[in-house]
C-alpha cells in the first residue's frame, strides 16, 4: 500500500472517529449497538419514532 493511500485512510479514520465521538457525547446513553437501527432507518429515508432515538 502506498504512503499516500495510508495517509488518506488515516485522515478519514480520524474524521470518522471524531464524528462518532461527537454523536456519543451528544447522546451519552446511546450505545454503538443502539445507534445502528437509527442509522439504518435514516439511510433508507424512513421515519423513526422518538423511542428509536432514545434507546
Question: What is the percent of helical residues?
Answer: over 70%
Q: Show unreliable segments.
A: none
Helix/sheet category: mainly alpha
> How many individual domains?
1
Order of helices and strands: HHH
List the helices and strands and how they pair.
Blueprint: H1 3-26, H2 32-44, H3 50-54
Short description:
It contains three helices and no strands. It is mainly alpha-helical and 55 residues long. It has one domain.
Could you characterize the architecture of this molecule?
This protein is mainly alpha-helical and 55 residues long. The protein has one domain (3-54). Helix content is 76%, strand content 0%. The model has no long low-confidence stretch (mean pLDDT 84).
Protein traits:
mainly alpha; elongated; 3 helices; 55 residues; 76% helix
Amino acid at each position: 500500500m502506498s504512503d499516500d493511500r495510508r495517509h488518506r485512510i488515516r485522515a478519514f479514520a480520524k474524521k470518522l472517529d471524531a464524528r462518532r465521538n461527537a454523536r456519543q457525547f451528544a447522546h451519552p446513553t446511546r450505545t454503538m449497538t443502539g445507534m445502528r437501527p437509527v442509522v439504518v432507518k435514516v439511510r433508507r429515508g424512513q421515519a423513526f419514532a422518538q423511542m428509536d432515538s432514545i434507546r
